Amino acid sequence: MGYTWNLQLKIFKCTAGIVIIIVIGLAIFTQNPLPMIYGLLFGTAISMLNFRVLALTLEKAVCMAPSKAQVYASSRYFIRFITNGIVIFISLKADYLNIIGVIIGLVMIKIIIFVQNLFNNKMFFKRIFIRKEGK
């Protein structure tokens, strides 16, 4: 496995847990949850695939010369970008996929990474919420 495998696994587990919670909530609180669930699962699967490809790209680009790494990383970025466009196009054409669910699935990993890093620094919150004497 690569250098970032443990981090990827942590993010994948957290994403899967959040998706399972959302799917259960959709199944309980909506009348016709299948299109939304299928869209959410489809978008999340593609998002996880894109995240894995990103990790492999970065691990490989680190070992290259800077000019080759830039070209390689840029070409892989456009491939992931086009993949997302194809996924959104498919979700628009397929009546069994909900476009909102697909988009939520596509951004799910980004949200997970943002939230994990936002609440990672405890000293930041201590400085915000604990007042110093004399102020």
UniProtKB/TrEMBL annotation:
Keywords: Cell membrane, Membrane, Transmembrane, Transmembrane helix. Its main location: membrane. It comes from the Bacteria. It is a multi-pass membrane protein. The chain crosses the membrane at residues 12-30, 36-56, 77-94, 100-119. One of its GO terms (cellular component) is plasma membrane. Pfam families: ATP-synt_I. It is found in: Cell membrane. InterPro entries: ATP_synth_I. This is ATP synthase I subunit. It comes from Marinisporobacter balticus.
